[in-house]
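Weekly structure sync, notes
Attendees: PL (lead), two postdocs, one rotation student
Agenda item 3: pending single-chain targets
PL asked that the sequence for the first pending target be pasted directly into the notes so everyone works from the same version. It is reproduced below exactly as submitted, 252 residues in total.
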Amino acid sequence: MLAGARASGDALALAHGVESKALIDILGEPMLSRVLRALSQSERLNSAPYVSGLSPELLTQASGGISAREAVSVSGGPAASLLGAVEAGLQLPLLITTCDHALLTPDMVNHFVGEALRNGADLSIGLAAKETIQASYPTTKRTYIPFADSPMSGCNLFFVANPNALKVIEFWKKAEQDRKKPLRIARRFGLITALRLLVGRPSVHKAFRLISNRLGARIGVVVMPFAEAAIDVDSQADLDLVKRIIANGAQK
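Predicted structure, written out during the meeting:
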């Protein structure tokens, strides 16, 4: 699990007076503990989760007594942290999520991992369709990728099946450096692939086939049927929504 923050710090954590977003209180428990519980109760995982980006002391505070292990933390962003953990001996396959996935449930984990294993891709990515999200939460603001068949929002769920998937993580690491320079990112894909993605606006599965061909690793998409899978805690508005959902009993 990724629980680090950018070097500039996390504004939401600062606003709540805690050292890490993982420690933000959600109805009486640290946010990280909710994610750990969902992972530990899933039938798809057979060992305690690893957490990257927290000191042993912060991990103890944020875990809420749920078993978790410290992974090697590497500066430079999520991709660098993942690669560093694998280089330090973390074994594949790996399910990757984030400490702010406060609405994660065992059912979501079971569905995502099951579909990732079924599709046989080197790397699987969880996405949710705009219509799925807005049917339940019409006013929530999410970032959508405008695919031809349906706009999609990320779910902070990744399944790294084998070493070939690390080609994509290496690309992600380089692209993170250019996250505010889309033309540079496009050039990394190559002109033809970039034009097909930017101008052709393919369907979600065709888009990832194009990216897979360019990067030399098969990337699969798992379209999640859970609106809550796309709601992470990036802002105070997100946090307020998450608390309302939990308080109303939509998430246990």
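Discussion points:
- The longest strand covers residues 151-160.
- Residues 53 and 73 are 5 Å apart (CA to CA).
Action: rotation student to compare against the earlier draft before next sync.
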